[in-house]
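We append the chain.
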Amino acid sequence: MAHGIRRVVLAYSGGLDTSVILKWLIETYKCEVIAFVADIGQKDELDGLKEKALNTGASRVYIDDLQEEFVRDFVFPALRADAFYEGSYLMGTSLARPLIAKRQIDIAKLEGADAVSHGATGKGNDQVRFELTYMALNPDIRIIAAWRDPQWSFDSRMSMIDYAKLHHIPVPLTKEKPYSSDGNLLHISHEGGILEDPWMEPHEDMFDLTVSPEVAPDVPMYVEIAFDRGNPVAVNGVAMAPAELLHHMNKVAGSNGIGRVDMVENRFVGMKSRGVYETPGGTVLWAAHRAVESITMDREVMLMRDSLIPKYAQLVYNGFWYSPEMKVLQKFVDETQENVTGTARLKLYKGNCIVVGRKSPYSLYSEEFVTFEKDQVFDQKDATGFIRLNALRMRIQALKNRD
């Protein structure tokens, strides 16, 4: 038992990195490794994972269904905030990592483990997201970050593929198809390989959750999404639990080619990276949520909340989900959602998500006031004083300049 570590809980996905790390931990630290798999909606990726982990050397394997918790306690709070990173990214990976790390800490306590481990590289964001959560929830836990460990001898994914073959560990990557994917109920991300050239268009066979807009149906699909205090609760009049609703919307939106994002983003560590994301259901839910907000939120409240979207997204993206500032910010966001109850109607067509209707029992929209026809509630002459008062400081400046 080297380094005083006898038992480690590894966040295990069965992909190249964690498959190799599982074997490497056993060989390097002479310790027991417990593999933990978080089921957050990655579908058939879970098939055979328990047997694979045990065959690679894990002493035990946890496969926990966290889908409902993921959507209810992580995705929907971000939806209520209308949060997206750098204008495009709905942060499917960013929102999943603190949940996975939280459950890892729970298992470590249950199993009396000395340490936790993950497969994130020293170049990426996930290392920060995992480790900030570990430290926030158990400041005494030991952390083995394999890619940063001085005993780690691999310098590329290619060298890891060779190691996996040597130890008869099946991995989903090949030297011919080296990009990696990470999926959950909110999205699937694609990185590496040919995508490292930001000029290269992704191959169509890479996409998993969405059809190409070119081959999507030629007839638009209409969908109505109902919200209660900022949370989606029903689709086309059918009430659904959070995970069920997002799963349903992924199918509906994905079949219409909605939710593809190809972007170059700024990682927390300082470099730019290119990622291709598929977020079909989330794209529609975000648009529908904004539509209901547009008729239920006070203008100044919306302005304040919108000014905090970049900060909220930055905290999520950078891994500060369990920070004090995030707790305070979420409370503010949730307060703004008290009257965000209503229904949005959207038209889905060949990659486009178009809002075509919105209604709410708490609507602040008044046809009496806004109409272009004759009305009895608004005296247009009132606008004269309103404009003159707002122009006063500019008139004074102009007068001073003229003099």
Observations:
- The chain has a mean pLDDT of 93.
- The domain at 183-359 is CATH 3.90.1260.10 (Argininosuccinate synthetase, chain A, domain 2).
- The two ends are 86 Å apart (CA to CA).
